[in-house]
Amino acid sequence: MTATERPLDSDDHELAAWLATTAGERLLEVRESGVTGRELKDAGDRAAHELLVELLARHRPGDAVLSEEGADDKRRLSASRVWIVDPLDGTREFSEPPRDDWAVHVALWEDGDLTAGAVAQPALHETYSTARPSLVPERSSTRPRIAVSRTRPPAFVEALAREIDADLVPMGSAGVKVISVVRDVTDAYVHAGGQFEWDNAAPVAVARAAGLFCSRVDGSELRYNQEDVSLPDLVVCRPELSAQILEFVRRHGTD
Question: Which helix (H) or strand (E) holds 158?
Fold first, then answer.
């Protein structure tokens, strides 16, 4: 389906998947345009944001939108439906072809909670969504695997890995890290270095639908469409690892 075709408007799950996929296709076009470096990053951010805003205005005109690349319209706080989008998660990786660890996030918050979401990994030609939730397979590794930043893995996660005898798996964007747990590439993603709602709303929606455990690092609920859009920490993991991870954080903190 292309951007000129009309998606199944009656289904928010299908719409989220189509939006993420379509924005991803636009980003692949930008990536192949010949621009590089900072210009490529800016062009990608702009193109995906403008396309998502245009398509949401066309297909969900009554809904609010919170985008990393747009102004924060506080009218969203009184709205019953808010689309939370990250048009290009992993801008650095996007600007380094042929890296594939970047993503497009599209989530719907409705009356207090996430109700639909999709994460596209355009360079892999894959979109993971709540339209057709993935069933996480049996763990294929004998040691737990924890997704971490490829440039700055936090010290507390390195200590956690030592305690639970886990391997660290470096990769790019936040969405890719969460989806790596859905894909059985890793078994957990533990983060406390600062994020915003758009960084993890869609990945969390997809992870929840797949049956994964999702929370703040203190075990509390992840809350979206808040006045302060900072959401600095989260845990996404296989359910059997959640108690170990939360207990480690309780005892040692994240400093």
Answer: helix 155-164
Residue 50 belongs to what domain range?
12-129
CB of 160 closer than 8 Å to CB of 245: yes
| pLDDT 10s digits, 72-130 | 999 999 999 999 999 999 999 999 999 999 999 999 999 999 999 999 999 999 999 99
Domain co-membership, 193 together with 245? yes
pLDDT of amino acid 5:
58
Burial class of 88 by CB neighbour count within 10 A (0 to 12, 13 to 18, 19+): buried
Chain-centre distance for alpha carbon 191: 13
* CA–CA gap between residue 109 and residue 223 (Å, rounded): 10
Look at residues 73, 85, 82 and name the one whose alpha carbon lies nearest to residue 198: 85
- φ and ψ at 224, to 5 degrees? -125, 170
- C-alpha 84: how far from its chain's center? 10
pTM of the predicted structure, to 2 decimals: 0.94
